[in-house]
Sequence to fold (287 residues):
Amino acid sequence: MTAAAPSRTLTASLVRGALTSPFKRAGRSGATLTADRLTAGNVRIAPGALASYSRICGFPEPGPLPLTYPHVLGFPLAMRLMTGRSFPLPVVGLVHTWIEITRHHAAPVTDPFELTVYADRLTPHRRGTEVTMVTEARSGGELVWESRSGYLSRHPTTTAVAPGAVGATPATELPAVTEWRLPGDLGRRYGATSGDRNPIHLYPLTARLFGFPRAIAHGMWTVARCLAEAGDPGRIRSVRTDFMAPVLLPATVTYAADGSGSAFQLRTGSRVHLTGSTTRDGGGADS
Fold:
């Protein structure tokens, strides 16, 4: 299959999620995950789709495969899994709380690969229940890339969670590097590229239906934009990002980073939207 922007698949999953979510109760006792895995074989990257993604996220063209792009390609599989009847959490209202991405081996963008998605675990959270979703990419049977993401289903809970066990810790303010002016249609433009047309990202009216005063930027766009700004993105081997507050569109945001670019933030004034750290080829975080 050729991996162009998978909008029809994601739209169908969003509709299915809207229909199945009312019948799922996140906080029910004894909720468990099934061992279901979804796989797409012989995935080939469409050059036009990759170029569109690179442009909107700020990656160089031509250039190495952005670290975040396989996650975008695997997201339709993840949505199919999360909107299935056996998945215990309602997909409507799920909040993306964190992501870890690791590139194990470089693979040319022309090589076909296999994508596999599965739910790894359910974890008690001070605000509900969090599921960890895993996406893996293999080339020639070898694991070349993987991501792990946390999605929070909010519900009342009396479960005691140890301090620091879940969620991001408050961020130490990093030096400001540059400002970005994000237009009101950023969510629609990124949605057209990634296929993720979740209503919370599209228009103020559709976002208000889900409790947001305006449309919000895609979390995966904010991560990708930060990595593109970090310099020499082809050498970034891994990233960990915690999402702390949504970016309401339009907005002017500040990208901040330490001297090496290994730690970064996105913020508006003193409000931190995300905080993250990277490692690079050739050594540790500062190499």
